[in-house]
Structure formats: C-alpha cells, structure tokens
Amino acid sequence: METSAKLESILFSLGRPEAITKVAKSLGLSPKEAEEAIATLQKRYQEQGSGLAVLVADQKVQLVTSPASAKLVADLAREELEGPLSKAAMETLAIIAYRGPLTKPEIDTIRGVNSGIMLRTLLIRGLVARKRSTSDARTFSYEMTPDFMRFLGITQQQELPQHKEYSEQKVITQLAEQARQEQELKATGTATNTTTQTPAPETTPAANEDSTTAPTTDEKPTNTTPNA
After folding, report:
1. pLDDT in tens, 136-155
2. Strands (DSSP E) found in 135-210
3. Which residues make beta-bridge pairs with 124?
C-alpha cells in the first residue's frame, strides 16, 4: 500500500485534527516525509475532483469534505440538527445521561450494536460532549452537556428520575440482556413459524449473526425528545 493510502486510512479513522508529528510516528516516517505524503494526498484529491480534502492548520492535519460539497454537507447537517431524534438516538442519549461518562465500547456493549452514528448525531446537536477518558487516554468518554442539563431543568446527574436505580451497572446489564433475549425469542418464533409452513431445504445459508441487532436506516423518528 502506498504511503499516501496509509495516510488516508489513518486520517479517516481518526475523524479529528491530529498532530503531523504523531501521524508521522504512526506511519514510521519523519515529519518531513509525512508532510510530503500529505501533499501527495492533497494533490490526488484535487486532480480527481474528490469530495474529500486534506486540511492542514497549526501543524495538525485532518481529513475533511471538499469546499465544493459545502452546501450539500450543510443541508445534511441542518436536517440532523432540526429533525426529530430517532428511537436509537434517544436510547443512546438516555444511556449516557444515566450512566455517563461512558466510552463508546461501553455504550456499544450496553446497546448491543454499534453506536457511532448515534453519537455523531448527539454531538452535532450539542446534547452530549466528548472528552478524553480518565481511565484510558487512548479513548474518549461521552457525557451530557450543560445545555442539555439546563433544558431538563437539572443541575446534576443525580437529579434525573430514578437515577440511582438506572445508573447501576447490574440494572443496565439486566435490561440489556432482557432486550437481547426478547429479540432472540422473536427471531426464533419467526424461524419456527417459517419451518412449520415450509419444509426446510437440505442445505441452507448461514444466518446473519448481526441480523437481530444491526441498526437500520428506516427507524421511525419520534417527536418526544427535544431538538438541541
């Protein structure tokens, strides 16, 4: 893989500005070689008319959308800011409100699905904040923002309804396990009905292990959560 391609992968996975010196170290390059790779990637994007661009400022580098796609991105961001939150986003927000600060892996474990898109939506709306985790500097933790707390009319997390009950690890784990079991029972019931009505073939493809937990794109939104 070319150096510029490796750089592209790193910048995409980071999703935030990063010091060129740190990027260079990750690639096993000198700062000068890293700057050359950045320039190569910038040139490639420009020549291809790509929707992406490489932004360099204050000795930091970040993968961003191109200026040409600014209106498209702005319209999308406006929709995310003004539209109602999906059920999945509200679920993620509730987990952070009662259990935060939490890291993304912890949130994913409680929900049983990848929460990356939900976290992005909540960050854009200013409902949650992302900070360096105190337990692991390599990761970030998520918590309620002061603006969201003011909207709820609370001054501290403990003032949330039934906070003591729902903030305990045991309770959250039980609820998450119960939800997974219910989903599995529904899937098993559907499979049983299908088997009863139609004889099963001798060989069938393996079921998608993520089919019961993977997030969908057609989740119906709800208007019960405030728009920040």
Report:
1. 777 888 999 988 888 888 88
2. 140-144
3. none
Residue 223 has a CB neighbour count (10 Å cut-off) of 9
C-alpha 228/C-alpha 220 separation (Å) is 19
Residue 61's φ and ψ, nearest 5 degrees, are -130, 145
d(CA 29, CA 10): 13
Q: What is the pTM of this model?
A: 0.47
Q: What sign does the CA torsion over 100, 106, 110, 114 have? A: positive
Write out the E strands in 107-188: 128-132, 140-144
What are the structural domains, with CATH classification, of the chain?
A: 3-69 (1.10.10.10), 83-171 (1.10.10.10)
Q: Which are the contacts of 111, defined by CB distance < 8 A and separation ≥ 6?
A: 91, 92, 95, 176
Whether a cis peptide bond, with omega within 30° of 0, leads into 17 is: no
Contacts of 127 (CB under 8 A, 6+ apart): 93, 144, 145, 147, 148, 228
Are the beta carbons of 140 and 130 closer than 8 angstroms? Answer: yes
Contact between residue 183 and residue 212 where contact means Cβ atoms under 8 Å apart: yes
3-state secondary structure 39-82: HHHHHHHHHHCCCEEEEEECCEEEEEECHHHHHHHHHHHHHHHH
- Per-residue pLDDT tens for 60-73? 999 998 888 888 88
